[in-house]
Amino acid sequence: MKEINNIVLIGAGNVATSLSMALHQAGKKIIQVISRHTNTARELAEKVDASFSTSIEEIKTTADIIICAVSDHALKEITENLKIKDTLIVHTSGSVALDIFENKYTDYGVFYPLQTFTKSTPITLNNVPVCIEANNQKTLKILRELGHLISNNVADINSDERKYLHLAAVFACNYTNFMYAIAEDLLKDHGLDMKILHPLIEETASKAIKYRPSEVQTGPAKRNDINTISRHLEILSNQRDYQEIYKVLSDKIRNKYKPNEF
Amino acid sequence: MKEINNIVLIGAGNVATSLSMALHQAGKKIIQVISRHTNTARELAEKVDASFSTSIEEIKTTADIIICAVSDHALKEITENLKIKDTLIVHTSGSVALDIFENKYTDYGVFYPLQTFTKSTPITLNNVPVCIEANNQKTLKILRELGHLISNNVADINSDERKYLHLAAVFACNYTNFMYAIAEDLLKDHGLDMKILHPLIEETASKAIKYRPSEVQTGPAKRNDINTISRHLEILSNQRDYQEIYKVLSDKIRNKYKPNEF
Question: What is the DSSP track for A7-67?
Fold first, then answer.
């Protein structure tokens, strides 16, 4: 089996940065970073001792693997324009099926790190699930080894499963963070420091990990406390967006947990 | 200043259990647990070496403080029926103002532990913010000392502030947990284990504590990725409740973060 030594990264955003830094630290050689934006390409290339380019036409043909860590839209463009048939190519997207590469490349796969990345927050990938999929066993084995270099949590996830996983992650991460942001905003408006909610945020996450979230739901909507719900909706009468969110979520929780539990 | 030695707990639910156990462990004497439900009253009383009763008419008059850890509805009833004027009385509710005690008692206050309690999950109160308020300085000082016995995080929060704090906590805790529960449900439907989301849940909470949540928002709605949003809404077409939640939240996030940031 061909060993992976030389890696080309297409993309220089949050996922590209985290992945290439982790692979670089694990001893792999990032030979090139390609990004349309000169500055971000150069910035990441410097971090991982790579050269950089702003055009996929200049891609280095000595690559053992091409990792496309770009937006779904850009990924489509790449598959239409990148004509290197015999180099292993993977994407890192939760929401794009494996077959985007079909009939275009010989060996291809998906290398999807299930985490929330922001450039300002470098995280170790040790425990991050790396979800892999490939069009043949040989490629799957290569991706599994590459995954284990940066994480102890490598999982075989097919395109259909990944679709639901990505959707679930939107709820568990993106929408959860939005709930935090609303709380932050409500406190700020009344001179209160978000710090006072930190123990609650920690405990809520801990409980969700220790138990099944559906079994540890609490709050006014869970106990069908309509007086508190009405007061909260009234407090939010000047913040219609938040009021609408509160209404929808309290309604759905009440639906889910009725008959009333006091 | 009168020292607090003997405590009567009205209520035997999650908050009553956590508070009385913490105070018991801190060396205070819980002399009585009062709850309408014989079984829960007895169960908690046994845990904290207290006697128990199912009627507030049997309340022990040797109490130095009466802690009402009951539902908002039950609290109203208690204030209408409990005629012990000269014993310090507090409630533990995030959503009830101090003035519920006005003209009924001499010394009164609020002792609100800002945390999510479930009986099955005993938690230490060490870092839990205990939000206190009282109708006079003497009582405030007593509550502050009592708070410091069980937590290193005691905060003066008035009724107006507490109202917003409680509302913010509904978003940061109850609604966040509901997001986890939806994720759990989506994964279960497709044979995937919730464990795969645990690192993501942990990191999302960590980031919210390290940074301002509004500054670390990620996801399809944040980047106005309408293709992914449309696909997700389609996936959810058989789960109308979740689809509606997804739609409302993605709309609000897009509103908040426009113009588009790519």
Answer: EEEE--SHHHHHHHHHHHHTT-EEEEEE-SSHHHHHHHHHHTT-EEES-GGG--TT-SEEE
